[in-house]
Amino acid sequence: MILMNDFKAEPPELHQAMLGAASRVLESGWYVLGREVEVFERQWAAECGVAYGVGVGNGMDAIEIALRSLGIGPGDEVITTPMTAFATVLAIVRAGATPVLADIDRQTALMSIDSARRCITLRTKAIVLVHLYGQIRAMDAWTELCAARGILLVEDCAQAHLASLNGNMAGSFGAAGAFSFYPTKNLGAVGDAGMLVSDDEALARKAAKLRNYGQSVRYYHPEMGLNSRLDEMQAAILGERLKWLPEFTTRRREIADAYLSGIDNPLVKCMAVPESPQAHVYHLFVVNCAQRDKLQAHLRTHQVQTHIHYPIPIHQQESCLNIARDPLGLANSEHHAATCLSIPCHPQMADAEVDVVIAALNSFSGE
After folding, report:
1. Do the two domains 7-102+109-242 and 245-362 of this chain adopt the same fold?
2. Alpha-carbon distance 49 to 158, whole Å?
3. Distance (Å, rounded) from C-alpha 195 to C-alpha 83?
4. Does 181 score more than 90 pLDDT?
5. What is the pLDDT of residue 283?
6. What is the pLDDT of residue 367?
7. What CATH architecture is 245-362?
8. Tens of pLDDT, residues 153-164
9. Which residue of 111, 181, 190, 233 has the lowest C-beta tally within 10 Å?
10. pLDDT digit string (tens) for 227-259?
11. CB neighbours of residue 152 within 10 Å
12. Quick check: 278 and 163 in contact, CB under 8 A?
C-alpha cells in the first residue's frame, strides 16, 4: 500500500538524531519550558522571518492564544473558512469570539476575499486566514483589506511550513501566525506541539504568559491563562527534524510537479497551480472528482491510500449548524467537500510509487 504518510521510511540518520535529542533532554533533567524550547522558538521564528516565537501545546491553542493576545474575545466576530480542520473554529470559540464563515474559491479551496468582504460587520475584529493544503495566495489583497477595514489578520499556518510568497514567509504577513507541529504536518513532532510567531513583542510577551496559566513570574497570575506549553522533548525533536525540512519540502514539490504534468483524466481535476513554486509546500495534494467515492475505491484496489480533507464543512457539523456565514451561502465549500480527495505526496515516496498513483488516477473510468 502506498501510504499518505510513511514515518518508518524516513532516513535512519534522522531517526538517530531524534533519539539523540530525546536522550539529551532526559539527561538534562529539565522537561518543560527550558533551553530546548527557547532554542527552537528562536529557530522557527527566524525561519518564518519574524522576531518572536512562543511554543505552545498544539496548533489550536496557538490560534486561541494569538486571538486572546490581540484582545479579541466576547462580542467580537472573527471571519474564517468552513473548509478547514475543526480546530480553527474551535479556537475562535474558545477565545470567546464569534466565528463567521466565508465561502471558498473553487479553484484553490482557499477563503474567497469577496465572500469575506460580505461577512464584515461593525463587530468584525479579525480574519483567521487558513493556508489550506500548504498554499499561500493573494496576500497583498488580504493585508490591504485588513488594513483598510481596521481588521487584524491571523494566519493559520498549520499546513504551510516554509511556504513563501514574494520573499515573505507564511506566518509573517499578519499580526500573528499559528503553526501546528502535529506528527503528520510537514514539520511534525512525535506528539502534539504548536507555536505562534509574530513581530509584535507585546503580543509575544502576553502569549508567553497565557500559555503558562497567565503567569508573569512564578505564582503571580495577572492573566487568566491556560496550560499550553511546548515541552522540551518535542522541541528537541523538532529542532532535529527542522534540519531535514528543506529537503523534504523540495521532494514534496517534485512529486506535486509530477502529478500536475502526469495526471490526464477529464474525471479528475487538480487544484490551481500556485502563484510561484515557493508558495505551495504541498502538505496535501488534492484533486476533485464528481465521483469521489468511486475514485477512492478505485485507488484502493491499486494499493493507493487516500484521505478526504475535509468531508464535512464546518457549518454542516452538528455543533455548528447555526453558525454565522456569508449571506449568499457557502455553496463552493459544500461542492469542494463533496468532491475533494487527498492523494499521497509525502517526501519518502519513490518515483515508482508516484508513477503508480498517476497511472491509477488516469485509468479511472467512473464505472
Report:
1. no
2. 16
3. 22
4. yes
5. 98
6. 83
7. Alpha-Beta Complex (3.90)
8. 999 999 999 999
9. 190
10. 999 999 999 999 999 999 999 999 999 999 999
11. 20
12. yes
Give me 16's grid cell. 538517530
User: Secondary structure of the chain in the HEC alphabet?
Assistant: CECCCCHHHCCHHHHHHHHHHHHHHHHHCCCECCHHHHHHHHHHHHHHCCCEEEEECCHHHHHHHHHHHCCCCCCCEEEECCCCCHHHHHHHHHCCCEEEECCECCCCCCECHHHHHHHCCCCEEEEEEECHHHECCCHHHHHHHHHHHCCEEEEECCCCCCCEECCEECCCCCCEEEEECCCCCCCCCCCCCEEEEECCHHHHHHHHHHCECCCCCCCCCCCCCCECCCEHHHHHHHHHHHCCHHHHHHHHHHHHHHHHHHCCCCCCEECCCCCCHHHECCCCEEEECCCHHHHHHHHHHCCECCECCCCCCHHHCHHHCCCEECCCCCHHHHHHHHHEEEECCCCCCCHHHHHHHHHHHHCCCCC
CB atoms within 10 A of CB 194: 28
Q: What's the pTM?
A: 0.98
Sheet holding 269-270, edge to edge: 269-270, 285-288, 340-343
pLDDT tens for residues 108-146?
A: 999 999 999 999 999 999 999 999 999 999 999 999 999
Residue reference for cell 483567521: 128
Under CATH, to which class is 7-102+109-242 assigned? alpha beta
The domain segmentation of the chain, as residue ranges, is: 7-102+109-242, 245-362
pLDDT one-digit tens code per residue, 191-200: 999 999 999 9
